[in-house]
Amino acid sequence: MLQIPDDGLLPIVPWYDELIQNYGHDIRGPYVEHFWLPTLGPTATWILRRCADVFDVFPQGTTIDLEDMAATLGLSFVAGKHSPFVRSLQRCVMFGFAQPTNAIAGGLAMRRVAPPLPERFVQRLPQSLALSFKSV
Predict the structure, then answer these.
(1) Which listed site, 3, 22, 47, 51, has its alpha carbon 20 to 30 Å from 115?
(2) Considering the chain, what is the average pLDDT of its residues?
(3) Where are the alpha helices (DSSP H) in 73-111?
(4) Angle formed at CA 15 by CA 98 and CA 26, multiple of 5 degrees
(5) Nearest-5° angle of CA 109, CA 112, CA 114?
(6) What is the spatial distance between Cα 50 and Cα 28, in angstroms, rounded to a whole number?
(7) Would you call 76 helix, strand, or coil by DSSP?
(8) Distance between CA atoms of residues 107 and 128, nearest Å
(9) 93 in Cβ contact with 99 (< 8 Å)
(10) For the whole prediction, is pTM greater than 0.85?
């Protein structure tokens, strides 16, 4: 389970995976919006996009203010596990877009590049997306 710091400040670093970097899709691109969003959910997708923006400015990583990030997404921030923002951050971990890292205590490594959508998730896409996925 993801541990949210009491002060609401979360250290993040980019998660570099050579295979995904070479064959994946930009987290801010249309592939993620069309095919990953139905699985991740809109808030988790926006969290990943915002973190990618942060890495453009701080390529080695930085600390983000979770209350501020939640507010930029139109949510309030509550540190509890039932908070919509915290649940979305947990979805990033659950679906392999973020992982706890030893590089920084209590921090997360976050992907900037999304892996190709696994077949088990393609099967769950709405029919209109599943059909367009086959042509990608």
Answers:
(1) 3
(2) 91
(3) 84-94
(4) 85
(5) 105
(6) 9
(7) coil
(8) 38
(9) yes
(10) yes
